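> @MW can you paste both from yesterday?
MW: sure, first one:
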Amino acid sequence: MYSRLIYLFFSVSPCLRGEMKSMSLQLQLDSLTAKLRAMVPAERLATVDRAAEEMVHSGLAARALQPGDKAPQFELPDGDGMLWRSEELLRSGPLVIVFYRGRWCAYCNTQLAALQEVHKQIADAGASLVAISPQTQKHSYMTRDMHKLRFPVLSDAGNQVARKFGLVYRMPADLQTLYESIMTKLPGYNGDQSWELPLAATYIVRKDGSISWAKVDADWRQRPEPEEVLRALTSVA
């Protein structure tokens, strides 16, 4: 029973998204956490909390690329197999890059849906937006289709690009076991056996390729507000 409840939680139904749409993004994420705590025994959630705390204390987020650093160039496919090149995207203006864990992650789904709400404003500012995960192209297609996203959703096989940004970590063994018990088996989503993920991160890259703004969250339950991204983008665009 608990496995099914957690699976449904990570899927995030359209109905639930509709209920939360009027909230700020962080309130939506906090609401998801509260619902999870109400459904799942504390001893199981302790594994999740411990993993998040260890990631925060690891210092990985601080070691990731920061404002002033040069953003690595990339060439990645979307769910249709179309290649997107950062060099070409930057020719028309700044680029917003969002690294997310995968379509199995309710926090990621909620963030992507929130970004879709401000996508037109990002475009009006002369910028482009892409979302990147280590998922296979099939799952990137399903992510875009499920949320009706109008920006590119790209597949970073093996976390090659995320690794250049300094974002990659391996999920701890006890969390792997928990995720497997709720039918969230990353090898099936990502097409490899690494159990590696990127930190949740949002970057704004100037036309010259330098990073102007960054928000890297070691705790995947924290994400920047879309309005925060828009404010940072306005100062660049």
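MW: second:
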Amino acid sequence: MALRVIPIRRAGNRTHLFMGGDRELVMFTGLIAFALVFSAQELRASLYGMVLWLCSLYLLRLMAKADPQMRFVYLRHRRYQRYYPAQSTPFRINSNRQGQQYR
């Protein structure tokens, strides 16, 4: 009896990207740039909003190209402790200099 093979389609496993970047981050930076442009209603604010939008879109595309799940990796990294105490393992071979360092 042969094993049954079920193909996993790429369309069912794709990450949610919008304009080449993470969907939520791209839309949020677009909202911030839009609010900056239309709340200030000045030429300088319009330029800053456009520069903010284009730079953030470029950086978010680079981030999604490197890893589409980078946002979740970063958020998990932020939740970790700031300090993990050193823990030895039975496979660690300490040098003489390292042992004398703590006397």
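> thanks! The mean pLDDT is 85.
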